[in-house]
């Protein structure tokens, strides 16, 4: 039986893909002609590109709906489209769902950060804490991406405890290939032949950009630079960089997947000082690329400690600094051995395996809800 799945894919309907958009795109890209799945990918902004893969098994549908400031695209426009028939199940791949669900619905909640950060007085407080709570009560199943996120979801919404499945993310095939895309020209010019550290995370306080700056300052290497990823246009915190470091800190423009792999492979180490993650792509991606990565084993990251991971407690700066110096002093042969081990370890994170697990959830939900009807 061919499954007809509607997919909320607004994160593909944007100038650039970010974390959740990469997940949505991989679901579509890793669906083959023989899988028996036909997608309808829904976007909400006709003025922006819709970055569905060329190999899409199904169709793309972009429509706007007045009142999106009040979330009416999701809460009214989308359900009206679903009532037209033909779609057996809706997958809200971006953390949220409509309350009115004309077809059985599955949602991926990547983590609970959205809800933790949407406190009283925040613009989206009512939508997340009230509207989405009601939507979750109606949904047939919840997918999440790590055991850590599963525990957080079950604690916040106990009524979901028996409707939760953990399906880890995968790693893009680019990380295991031999192609080497050149770095963006602006970075090539800024770095020259200088060695560099790669910070991943952006401007959010829990990502701790200042921690990476302090590691650079105290590394004992005046030739070492820092490339910072994840900062959108106009958000680079230039005022937080000490004068003594400004010539050695560079903010990466948005990079395509191939450029990102090259950034990892060229780095002396990846610095990932986050305090919480639902999954933690950089912890795996760095190891897949053969690059040592420093992070603290918190939340989902406890499951991502592989052969190229150096871990220390969150506030143990001396431990972090000692790990960095150890990585910088690694002999070439030892680094090469661990790089091979890290790439082999990272292959367990397969997008194809992840997508097949999604299909199993869809089939189970369609069968279960069909019997009830």
UniProtKB/TrEMBL annotation:
What InterPro entries does this protein's entry cite?
Glyco_trans_1, Glyco_trans_4-like_N
Q: Keywords on this record?
A: Transferase
Q: Does the keyword Transferase apply?
A: yes
Origin species, per record, is: Roseateles violae
**Does the keyword section mention tRNA processing?**
no
Q: Where is each Glycosyl transferase family domain found?
A: 192-331
Q: Which residues form the Glycosyltransferase subfamily 4-like N-terminal domain?
A: 19-173
Superkingdom in the source lineage: Bacteria
PANTHER family per the UniProt record, alphabetical:
GLYCOSYLTRANSFERASE WBBK-RELATED
Record's protein name: Glycosyltransferase family 1 protein
